[in-house]
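It is worth pausing here to work through a concrete case rather than discussing structure prediction in the abstract. The textbook approach is simple: state the sequence, then state the predicted structure, then interpret. We follow exactly that order.
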Amino acid sequence: MEDTVIQADGLTKVYRMGEVEVQALRGLSLQVKRGESLAIMGPSGSGKSTLMSILGCLDRPTSGNYVLDGEQVSGLTDDQLASIRNRKIGFIFQAFNLLQRTSALDNVELPVSYSDRPNDGRNRAAEALKAVGLENRMKHRPSELSGGEQQRVAIARALVNEPAILMADEPTGNLDSKAGQEIIDLLLSFNRDRNTTLLIITHDPRIAGQAQHIIKIRDGVIEEDPR
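Step two, the predicted structure:
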């Protein structure tokens, strides 16, 4: 379907630890429409981070089928996964994951060097930082920025290649409530204004409640999907 950006069917993930098998996902199926904002909730060990890794092309399912923005992901090589990941997905993590010795501008420009449009990376990085309100902080290193500003740099980095999907894993976990709400407002504005699909993993029901939809995962399956 044209308006479907994520189509996952029967995903399983089995981790082997010696002779012990751990089933992180147990035949999970999920469909996400283009432009949707979706919060994924569940207790520790429920499988939500494993699901995010598979949907984000950071890992492969043990079995099942996954189509991302019209491209069949199942069976891709590591290089092919890296390519689709860089083209289609922008990641935002709890820990920011910024390079500490380089400026905000350099951090944001980095993904462009791996894209199919590397030549205008500087301008695109600057525009992304302006979009998150950091036009006056481009030359600052992460240590010179507040936690909220560092997360804004991470969002700009996620946006710089104009991905179809933003995936945010506990994006407010290292922030106070005010800075955290500002980050959620920013993510939802990009979801609304750019029609960028937004997936948020969160433990916080106040954060989840601001997305259009919430799904709950337990023991590797979707326990509740009211859509």
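Step three, interpretation. Residues 177-194 form the longest helix (18 residues). The chain has a mean pLDDT of 92.
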